[in-house]
């Protein structure tokens, strides 16, 4: 019998386009170098699944079926698959998602314990992996509560804008609301500023102000080195590659910092 228990890292932020899925892809791919890793797409947009090569899931069971109540529920082991676009020697796996996750949310909304259905779905496979990395939708709601409450550690990617700062703050407030309700909340590992804009050798005023505001307002929560804005990120995402394996060291460095913090927390 294995004594392994996966460390569960959720990537979430109550703001759209903040770099959540990019972070989930990079963290899952890089953690796979340290142990068997499962990337869990918990966003009905299904971007992580698409980037990992699974573009049509209409005939397949997805993460949606694993959170359904009663007899309709599917065991999570039945939906786990390898990324289609990369051979990573079976160290990185995917639990995919698509739009059907929105319907699943409607189906659980009246059920007791509905905030913990993803946590329940993951329980039987914790001993099979070293790391689980969960991607979340951008909005405040039942799906986000489920992804946050499944985690040991929370990473919050935040765009280097005023909107991004507000998203990070809202996420912190949500964590406190859940804690006040006696839910067991994850450790807030840190904020990861993303899409930091540079002109020549200088950060733009807006990016600098956003990172300073984050450092001031996040109440001692670590703020990782910002990820710079670059068209390379879109290209590597669409191929399902991490920035590290694409040789983009400058862009990969902030994710390495997050990985080090995850490994220290193990
Ligand atoms: N550092 C970056 N530089 C340039 N583009 C980036 C960077 N990080 C992410 N992007 C791009 O920005 C878009 C949004 O990023 P991503 O999908 O990771 O955000 P998200 O928070 O998951 O979005 P959503 O809220 O819609 O789920 C994507 O097209 C992605 O490729
Ligand atoms: Mg996303």
Automatic annotation (TrEMBL):
CDD domains: ParAB_family (cd02042)
The organism's taxonomic lineage, starting at the top: Bacteria, Bacillati, Cyanobacteriota, Cyanophyceae, Thermostichales
Stored SUPFAM superfamilies: P-loop containing nucleoside triphosphate hydrolases
A Pfam family reported for this protein in Swiss-Prot or TrEMBL: AAA_31
Domain AAA: 8-177
Name used for this protein in its record: ParA family protein
């Amino acid at each position: 019998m294995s004594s392994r228990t996966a460390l569960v890292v959720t990537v979430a932020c109550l703001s759209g386009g903040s770099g959540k899925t990019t972070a989930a892809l990079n963290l899952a791919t890089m953690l796979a170098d340290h142990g068997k890793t499962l990337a869990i797409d918990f966003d009905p947009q299904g971007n992580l699944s698409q980037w990992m090569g699974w573009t049509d899931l209409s005939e397949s069971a997805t993460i949606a079926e694993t959170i359904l109540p009663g007899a309709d529920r599917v065991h999570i082991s039945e939906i786990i698959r390898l990324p289609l676009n990369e051979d990573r020697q079976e160290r990185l796996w995917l639990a995919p998602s698509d739009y059907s996750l929105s319907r699943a949310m409607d189906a659980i909304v009246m059920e007791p314990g509905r905030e913990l259905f993803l946590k329940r779905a993951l329980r039987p496979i914790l001993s099979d992996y070293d790391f689980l990395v969960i991607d979340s939708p951008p909005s405040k709601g039942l799906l986000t509560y489920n992804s946050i409450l499944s985690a040991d550690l929370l990473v919050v990617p935040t765009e280097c804008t005023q909107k991004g700062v507000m998203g990070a703050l809202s996420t912190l407030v949500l964590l406190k609301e859940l804690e006040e309700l006696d839910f067991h909340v994850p450790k807030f590992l840190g904020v990861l500023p993303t899409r930091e804009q540079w002109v020549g050798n200088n950060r733009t005023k807006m990016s600098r102000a956003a990172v300073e505001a984050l450092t001031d307002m996040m109440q001692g929560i670590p703020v990782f080195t910002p990820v710079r804005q670059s068209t390379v990120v879109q290209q590597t995402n669409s191929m399902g590659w991490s920035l590290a394996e694409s040789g983009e060291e400058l862009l990969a460095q902030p994710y390495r910092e997050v990985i080090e913090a995850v490994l220290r927390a193990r």
